[in-house]
């Protein structure tokens, strides 16, 4: 099952990569940029940071991190097409990206001060193994910052959110990208993830002890910062 999910997710993101940025900004009404900025600010990134951006996609987190003064950035993604776009958008870090999965990182122990993963953890085929890798490659005192969707607690807002997520988003996303199944997978994966996965527990299992949780935009997005 893990191998099947790994390749399914890779194929989805390879296929929609050309429209990925447009749809991210359109379907989130542009708020996704604010989510990344707030999360990176909470992480305390600065010119001395050495950042690994996991599931980096087309490089939006890396570009935002650059504004905080970060110069040493490695982008990592399993989708070749996403990494190609990452190169084009982030020319100042060409050569520093790696095609890989989070569960199997080709890096030395204690190599990074920070790891970020924005809206990618639910696509890991083994989240616990991924977090074990995070812990291994982070320096002591280093931080893993996870930005991820979640289902809001307010019942009325949750109902509206589900309607948008399950009816409107797949239709618009499918029409523009030409791949409706990709934008059906998104809401399905978020709801399943929210019910079945306890990120805090998994991070603790990997050895992280200081863990902070922040909710954005009525609780539809969470940012978790775990320190080694």
Automatic annotation (TrEMBL):
<feature type="binding site">
    <location>
        <position position="58"/>
    </location>
    <ligand>
        <name>S-adenosyl-L-methionine</name>
    </ligand>
</feature>
<dbReference type="InterPro" id="IPR004033">
    <property type="entry name" value="UbiE/COQ5_MeTrFase"/>
</dbReference>
<keyword id="KW-0808">Transferase</keyword>
<feature type="binding site">
    <location>
        <position position="77"/>
    </location>
    <ligand>
        <name>S-adenosyl-L-methionine</name>
    </ligand>
</feature>
<keyword id="KW-0474">Menaquinone biosynthesis</keyword>
<dbReference type="InterPro" id="IPR023576">
    <property type="entry name" value="UbiE/COQ5_MeTrFase_CS"/>
</dbReference>
<dbReference type="GO" id="GO:0009234">
    <property type="term" value="P:menaquinone biosynthetic process"/>
</dbReference>
<dbReference type="InterPro" id="IPR029063">
    <property type="entry name" value="SAM-dependent_MTases_sf"/>
</dbReference>
<comment type="similarity">
    <text>Belongs to the class I-like SAM-binding methyltransferase superfamily. MenG/UbiE family.</text>
</comment>
<dbReference type="GO" id="GO:0043770">
    <property type="term" value="F:demethylmenaquinone methyltransferase activity"/>
</dbReference>
<dbReference type="Pfam" id="PF01209">
    <property type="entry name" value="Ubie_methyltran"/>
</dbReference>
<protein>
    <recommendedName>
        <fullName>Demethylmenaquinone methyltransferase</fullName>
        <ecNumber>2.1.1.163</ecNumber>
    </recommendedName>
</protein>
<keyword id="KW-0489">Methyltransferase</keyword>
<comment type="function">
    <text>Methyltransferase required for the conversion of demethylmenaquinol (DMKH2) to menaquinol (MKH2).</text>
</comment>
<keyword id="KW-0949">S-adenosyl-L-methionine</keyword>
<dbReference type="GO" id="GO:0032259">
    <property type="term" value="P:methylation"/>
</dbReference>
<comment type="pathway">
    <text>Quinol/quinone metabolism; menaquinone biosynthesis; menaquinol from 1,4-dihydroxy-2-naphthoate: step 2/2.</text>
</comment>
<feature type="binding site">
    <location>
        <begin position="96"/>
        <end position="97"/>
    </location>
    <ligand>
        <name>S-adenosyl-L-methionine</name>
    </ligand>
</feature>
